[in-house]
Amino acid sequence: MKKNYRIIVIFFYAPVLISCTDIYDICDLPRGVTLQGGFYQKVNGVVSPATAPYFSLYTLGSSTAIYSNQQNISRFGVGLNPLIDSASYSISLGGNYIADTITVVYTSQSTLISPACGNVYLHNLVRIRTTYNTIDSIKIVAPAVNTGSAENLKIYF
Prior knowledge:
The chain is mostly beta strands. 11% of the residues lie in helices and 50% in strands. The chain has 1 helix and 11 strands; from the N terminus they run H-E-E-E-E-E-E-E-E-E-E-E. It has a 6-stranded antiparallel beta sheet with strand order 4-3-6-7-8-10, with no helix packed on it.
C-alpha cells in the first residue's frame, strides 16, 4: 500500500512542481538601449558605408576597452549612463589612423515599457563634439536613443 501511495503523491505533485518553475521571460519586448553609430566615407560627393580596419573605443580616462581592435567594423553600439548628461570616448579606426575624442551630450528619461517589462532609460542626443584627426565629421541622424536599432550617428572619415 505504501508503494501505491508514493506513486499517487508523485503523480499528483509533479505537475504542480513543474508548473511553478519559471522558464519563460514574461517580457518579450526589447529592453536594450544603446547609442548606434555607423562609419561612412564621402568620395567626390558620394557617401558610402565604410568599415574601420581595427576599431577601438574607450571611455575617456579609462583603460577598459568597450571595443578593442575589432576588425572590419561598420557599426557599433554603446550604452549611455543616465546619471550623467555627457560621455567622452577615445575612438581609433586602425593602425594608420590617429585616435579621436568624441563627446556626446544627451538628456535621459526613465520610461515604462510595460508593467511586465519595467522601466528603461531613453536618451535624446543634444549635440556631439569631436577632434578631427581622422574623423572628417559626425552627423546626428536620429537623436532618439531607444530600444530600436536605428542608427543615431554617422561618422565620416
